Amino acid sequence: MRIVYIINSLNGGGAERPLPDIVAQMRARGHDVHVLALARKAGNAVAWLKDAGIVHDILSPHPEKFASLRTTLAAVRRHAPDLIWTSLTRATLYGQMAGIVLRRPVVSWQHNAYLRPWNRRILHATHRLTDLWVADSRFVAKCTARQLNVPERDVITWPLFTAQAHMPQAAPWAGPGNGRGVFRLGTLGRLEAQKNYGLLIQTMACLRDHAPHCRIHLDIGGEGSLAPQLQEQITALGLDNITLSGFQADPFAYCAGLHGYVQPSLFEGLCIALHEAMQAGVPSIVTPVGAMADVVRDGETGLFLDPPTPERLASLLLRLYDNPALCARMGAAARQQVLSSYNLNAITAQARAVMERAEQLVATQAGAVRAGTSPLTPIR
Length: 380
Fold this sequence. Notes:
single chain; alpha/beta; 7-stranded parallel β-sheet
C-alpha cells in the first residue's frame, strides 16, 4: 500500500517520537509511507525521521503555522495514497476530509485520554469519517470509545513503545553517603499545563525548607510555552536545586543518568517517557492517571502520587532518598516489567493486528470498485 501519514507537526513530542518505529512496522509489511507534517514547530523530530530514512514534507512555510486544509488536500492528492493515516486532532480532521474527497479509507491515532472540549465535540461529530481508530494503550482505547461514541470493534490498540534490552541502564542510588551524594531526579515532557510541573517546583521548595539534609536535584527536560513561567517561579523561590534543561534528543541516555523519575501529570495517554525511565531501571513516582495507573505497580515498580500535593511528593521522594535498597528493587522490577510486556515480539504482534485491519479496509474498498459498487476515482 501507499500510505500518507498526516501529523500536526514535527515538534518532538509523544506523538512524533515513536514515528520511526511505527513506519518501520509498516515498511516490514511492504508498505510505502510518506509523512506529511502540517507545521514544523520546533522541528526536534526532523532528525529522527532523517536518521530512519523516512520521506517527509512540511506543508507550511511558517514554522509555527499549520498548513491549510486546501494545501493538505493538494499534497495528499499528489501522493495518491491507498490509505490515509492521521495523528492528533487537526491532522485527523484534515485526513478525514481527504478521505472523503479522494475516497480512501482513513485510520486515526488517539494518543491521549483527555481531549480539549472543542476537539472532543468535533471528533465526536466526525468519528464515522475514520474507518479505524488506533489507541496507544488499552486505557486510551476505552476513553476513545466512550468520548467519541466509537464502537469498540472500531478501536484497536497499538502501544507506542518497544522495549530494548541493550539501551543504557541507570546506576542505582547508593545513598547520600558522606553527604556529597546527590539524588538525581528527572522528568521529560512538554512544558505545558497538562504536565503539572509547577507542583514539582513547589515540592523542591518544600524540601529545601523542611528537609535541608536532603540533597535532591531536579532536572526538567522539555520545551513548551510555560518555560518562562516555570523559570520565573524557580527564580522567585530562590531555588538552586532545579534545572530546566530543554529538549532531550536522547531520552535513553537522559533516563540512564537518573536515580528517580517523576511524572505529576494531570492526564496522560501511554506516557512514553515513563516507559523509557522504567526500561533504564529507574524507580518512578507518578500520578495514577491514564495508562500510568496500569503500567506502574504501586510499591513494586514505583509509587503513586495520590493526592498530588507538594507535601505528599516530598514524603515519597524522602522515602526513596533514605532507602537505596528500595530504589534498587523498584528499578529492577520496573525494567523487568517493561522488557516483558513491551518486547519486540509483543509489540510486533499488536502492530500486525492493526495493519491487517488497515489492509483489509483497502482490500474491501478495492473489491467494491471492481464490483462497481463503490467508485474509487478521486473527486476532481
